[in-house]
Structure of Aspartokinase:
Amino acid sequence: MVSRVQGIDGALTVKPLLVAKFGGSVLKSGEDYARAAEITEELQREHSVILVVSAMKGVTDRLLRLARDFEASPSVEIPELYQMHVEALRGAGVSGRLFGEAFSRIARLIDELTKIIWALRVLGEVTPKALDYVVSFGERLSAVIMEAVLRSRGIEAKALTGWEAGIVTDDRFGEANPIMEETVPRVRSRLLPLTEKGIVPIVTGFIAATRKGDITTLGRGGSDYTASLIASILGATEVHFYTDVPGVMTADPRLIPEARTIPRLCVIEALELSRVGGKKFHPRTFEPLLYSKIRARILDAKDPHGPHTIVEPECIDTLKAVAVMRGLAVVRLEGAVMAGRIGTAMMVTSVSKRAGVNIVAISQPVTETRIEIVVAEEDAERLAKALSEEIRNQELDVNVMVETGLSAVTIVGYGLRNPSLRARVLSEALSLEPEPELRSITTGFHDASLTIVTNARDAVRIAERIHSRLLRTRGAGEAS
Ligand SMILES: Nc1ncnc2c1ncn2[C@@H]1O[C@H](COP(=O)(O)OP(=O)(O)O)[C@@H](O)[C@H]1O
Ligand SMILES: N[C@@H](CC(=O)OP(=O)(O)O)C(=O)O
């Protein structure tokens, strides 16, 4: 979509829409906000820009601790948060009236935060709804700073919460889902009138609200999802994710220092990679971009013209990246009575649903004597207990066991559709000495990923081997 933009002289120009998201990793100081403003200024020459901002680095974690951990002292933590935001405002070069206005808004938000934190201390309990309200302050404070910084450079800008920008969700606090029928028309009617007047909307990432106006969050890392959601609703031509690495890399550079930037990823590969923690994307980031023509770019805020990743609709047959997901456990059901017994798998999935446990992976051999459910480690005991109860109620002779300390190593790339490349990946993994323990092997969406569940140590060994043999010099967009 293009936006008709009214200039100061009243003349209308037509510019393509671009959504730019700045992550907490690149919002650590006033200098960072100033850099984000410079990038926005440059983008504005060719585009109508909508910004999505995260909280300053570390702020969401601090707010969560403040709300949950009654040992954390509000009289120490809150003034520190206040100081951090005022310093960023000052450090970004905001002064005079704009400084005064933003300073008062920060003070009001901090005052509101203080009241809620003390109220939680008095109540002695924190509901998921209260937690979302508390963490929302991180993005709200950040958007106030960004607005002041842009305005101090003569760019018209307006900070909006996700709710004010039109995002309506269900009431799954902590992991809310947008209600699209309501969100789509609202986002259009709230944001387009601003861009048409040449105003840059600054939307708080990660936070939205229910129909009743209760603040919700979209899950950790949710600003990515806010950005792609808005881009897809408005039919933007591009969505940019500004971060602290030069794009998506062939592996997490903290795990594999030789990791390199992947110049091109297709949206299916990006979707698979985000599900397993690649670039710590929110797992739903690429959902709204699937089947769209929107291009995503992942860029280093410190070097926006340097190497980066473009995510585009068309896929080519290569291998792209490897990612390791830690902290997994397997809940294993074993019993001869399960064979041929219709409804056993349904029992497992409905018990998981009742226990509020997300199933990361599930498998059963054709002999039907075993079912393995991979879940997050912290959910394993709860699921095992719920399954044991159900098995007792149904008087089945089935054992339930839990094994913790597992990881999943996932190789991503459209090239995996080629059986010989899949075989090559597996033979590389199996040729390690000592031989790794492989718990399960599965393929993902469009065969664009292959996941091996194993113990934590072997997952890293496999990732290193696959990276050094198949990704270090290839897979970054070249044919395999
Ligand atoms: N495959 C990968 N490519 C790039 N970065 C990765 C990858 N896997 C993990 N990361 C990590 O993701 C970090 C960026 O994510 P995050 O800190 O959430 O940024 P932001 O706050 O900008 O959203 C990087 O610093 C890097 O350590
Ligand atoms: N601030 C939120 C949302 C977010 O997306 O942050 P970041 O862009 O820094 O990953 C979080 O920490 O989860």
